[in-house]
Design goal:
With 346 residues, the protein is mostly beta strands. It is 0% helix and 46% strand. It is built from no helices and 33 strands.
Length: 346
């Protein structure tokens, strides 16, 4: 695969997220036992990331907590643990959960107790907007200032320095005031073993030794918020410059409007959340798998006129979930459910 490089979380950091989490990491317990807390409401705040675990539970990272949905009931797992805003969630290969927050670092949850990781344990910063597990089982955290890799014992940090990215072995931390453009918004490892880091600034590709800035026509890809590699090995990037497709040789711009999230469903269709017009409402769109290689793939607007759309998930039953400014939506192919009138356990 030939790349052209030069002088870029679901995760989306936007104007709706201006305030920082006020929880002081120094006041958090490193390890604590917890009891599930059943709430009488569904997520009602900004909902950033939605994932489904191996048992079928839906996990929702929102500004009012991390919620688990078992098909009937919503449970706020973190209400007695932290008041921080949660941005990201990951189930690792061992079945444990990781939650990224703004202000209180990362929480590890084994189903019984929580362990909190902050700058004291080795994170670059306590604002963790995205989480990714690589092929060898390392957990990567996209944070304000760069990326932190955890191998189960210790952290290895990679910091954004100006328009480049470097490994840091000095244990430096980054103040929260330096957030844009020094935050990693999305991380993937492609089929060749290279890592891609999207940031509010440049986008970087890392071969294990060197970080190279990703460019197109001599210009760097900047302010990319989301990246995936689909089943065919095509890279999709979305952000301030719209939706882009990279087949290993050529970059193709699909749309120019801001794209916040990209997701591939089990049939190979590509779903996106994007602005309908600059500064306007948002739309949930589906690009048909049969036409993805076309210069302008066939697209269907599934949901429009949302104030904002964040993370997207296809559940095992085929329904599509997505986060909004005021909670979560589920689309069954015909109707949308915001769960506001759904009976929940008190």
């Amino acid at each position: 695969m030939k790349y052209t490089y030069g002088l870029f979380f679901i995760c989306i950091f936007c104007t709706a997220c201006k305030g920082q989490g006020k929880t002081d990491p120094a006041e958090e317990n490193t390890k604590s036992e917890t009891q599930d807390v059943i709430t009488s409401t569904v997520p009602n705040n900004i909902t950033r990331t939605i994932k489904q675990d191996r048992n079928g539970n839906i996990w929702i990272a929102a500004f009012d907590g991390v919620f688990r949905y078992d098909g009937k009931l919503f449970t706020n797992i973190t209400s007695n643990v932290s008041s921080a805003r949660f941005f990201s969630v990951l189930e690792d290969r061992k079945g444990n959960l990781w939650f990224g927050s703004i202000g209180s670092g990362v929480y590890y949850y084994d189903g019984k107790s929580f362990q909190n990781f902050t700058t004291r344990e080795g994170l670059i910063n306590n604002e963790a907007g995205c989480i990714y597990e690589d092929k060898t089982g390392n957990i990567w955290f996209g944070v304000n200032g760069g990326a932190s890799r955890y191998d189960g014992k210790s952290f290895r940090n990679y910091m954004i320095q100006g328009e480049s990215m470097i490994e840091d072995r000095m244990g430096k931390t980054v103040p929260s005031s330096q957030r844009p453009p020094n935050e990693v918004t999305s991380i993937i490892e492609d089929k060749t073993g290279k890592f891609w880091f999207c940031t509010r600034g440049n986008t970087f590709v890392y071969d294990g030794k060197t970080f190279t800035t990703l460019t197109h026509s001599g210009k760097p890809f900047t302010n990319v918020r989301t990246i995936i590699e689909d089943k065919k090995g095509t890279i999709w990037l979305g952000g301030n410059d719209g939706l882009w497709r990279h087949d290993g040789i050529t970059f193709t711009n699909i749309i120019q409007n801001f794209v916040g999230y990209i997701y591939e469903d089990k049939n190979g269709n590509i779903w996106t959340s994007s602005e309908e017009s600059p500064g306007g409402s948002w739309v949930l769109s589906r690009y048909d798998e049969k036409y993805l290689s076309n210069k302008k793939p066939t697209v269907t607007g599934v949901r429009s006129n949302e104030g904002m759309i964040f993370g997207i998930l296809e559940a095992y039953d085929g329904s599509i979930w997505f986060g909004t400014l005021n909670g979560v939506r589920r689309y069954d192919g015909n109707t949308f459910n915001d769960f506001k009138g759904k009976e929940v356990k008190e």
